[in-house]
Amino acid sequence: MKFKEITLSGTPYERGFAYGQQCKEEIAVSLDAYQFLFKETKGIDWEVARGISDYYIELTRAYNTDYVEEIRGIAEGAGVPFEDIAALNTRTEIMYSDALKAAQATKNEPQECTVISLTPPAAADGHVIAAQNWDYSGRLRESLVIVHVKNEDKPDFVMVTEGGMIGGIGVNDHGVAVMLNALKTTSSCKGVPLRARMRAMLESENLSDAYVLGGQEPVTVANLTVVHKDGVALGFEMDADIVEPMIPEDGVLVHTNHYLGLKTYLKNDVNHMGSSYIRLQRIKYLIKERYGKITVEDIMEMFRDHAGYPQSICDHISMDFDMTNFSIIMDLTDNAIWLAPDCPCENEFERIYI
After folding, report:
1. Alpha carbons 20 and 16: distance in angstroms, whole number
2. Counting runs of H as helices and runs of E as strands, what totals does the chain give?
3. How many domains does the chain have?
4. In this predicted model, what pLDDT tens digit does every residue of 123-156 receive, in sequence order?
């Protein structure tokens, strides 16, 4: 597998320090990429971003102080300032800290991800599957790491994330999987950072707890999808003020990068780019075509789909601003993760063990 794979245990600080030590190169890539992205997409200088992160780190401390200790450990292990790792872990909130800037679409606005949740009767043989293409700046490809976390009093989990992040896309040993889509809002973000929420969801024992922790007010900006091996799933769209649940229909829950809920869509009907609508209709069609018989191999092919190229499910728009950086398929029934780096049309999926 192309991505570095590490295992962490111990106290929050010890986990963070080991993470920082083992992933110095990947963290350096993350820092370079986000300095570029903050400036080019939102006009935010890195020093300004670090200052903005202070507010969100204090929200994180109130949410779960262990997460701030882990961030401190990552910084010291990697030999970089705490404020740098804080800015990485509050990147979504920094980008949406100014409502006016958040509402402005630019030619460099990232398109981002396609998420699939399949529960019975949608998938073959009663399987429960959570899967997504993660699309963002190709500058982050060399930052990605597979992180296994061993906890003493919470579920163990594995996630794929950018180097230095404490939360990401993944699944825990209780069968709870977490995925995300970026969304764009017209209001300033004032809530607990997305990455802290995703981490808490990965440490949840059941779907209900994951939903409560993920959607806790004050909220942030994203769509989060949580799936449980028992065959239940739930999505929820957030802006700065609203949490709107998304319920599967006939075992299918899909999402791209625009608001679908009535309340959230009407409030945030900003200048979306066409890729999100194209990918949503395409993934719905591909699922309908194989409904009831969908296998992991079928999803691999769906994620390689080029309808609407380059703004397709397999995203080839721009190395600087938007490319598919990995595809992940979590078969919760088989307790298996399948992962392909970069664009899946160019790489094979390999199995990662939980």
Report:
1. 6
2. 12, 14
3. 2
4. 999 999 999 999 999 999 999 999 999 999 999 9
